[in-house]
Amino acid sequence: MNYDQYEPAIEAILFSLGRSVAVEKLASAIELDVKTTKEVIQQMIQRYQLENRGIQILELENKYQLCTKKEYYSYLIRIASQPKKHVLTDVLLETLSIVAYKQPITKGEIERIRGVKSDHAINKLIEYELIEEVGRLDAPGRPILLATTEEFLRCFGVSSIMDLPMMDAEQMEEMKEEAEEEIAVTM
Prior knowledge:
This protein is α+β, with helices and mostly antiparallel strands. Helix 2 crosses helix 3 and helix 5 crosses helix 7. Strand 5 and strand 6 form a beta hairpin. It has two domains: 74 residues, Orthogonal Bundle (Arc Repressor Mutant, subunit A); 97 residues, Winged helix-like DNA-binding domain superfamily/Winged helix DNA-binding domain (Arc Repressor Mutant, subunit A, Orthogonal Bundle), CATH 1.10.10.10. The mean pLDDT is 87.
């Protein structure tokens, strides 16, 4: 099969939309099956890397997005106005980590893990579009369930939450001991 006829169409769609597009929608638009569409996109990703282009295609949980490579950002800001960078404090990072590893999760569960109120942190992470409401728990009060977003994947350079690093048993034990020492000091 000659992929050359499909690549320009995929490139035009991804460029024009400027956001991620589900592979099923791309396949439907170019009238190919999903498996072949993924093959075409993988070939495009490889070619963009080999040709040292300023753009790349990101895969974000079975969706694809055309974007600028990070190393060319400095050239972009000379022309475009610099987007506001969000500052992730330790509190925000802690809360975001809990959501990322325990999702979907309720605010109450986050607060039980952190041991403090988390309204501000959760609201900021929603404002920064790093987490979002994904439904409600079937429990009294029907608490909101939170999970990470595509923007989270983009910001942290992972294709899926399955790509997040896992702690080994030794790291877990060290953290547990530190937490127990902190609890003993405060009592």
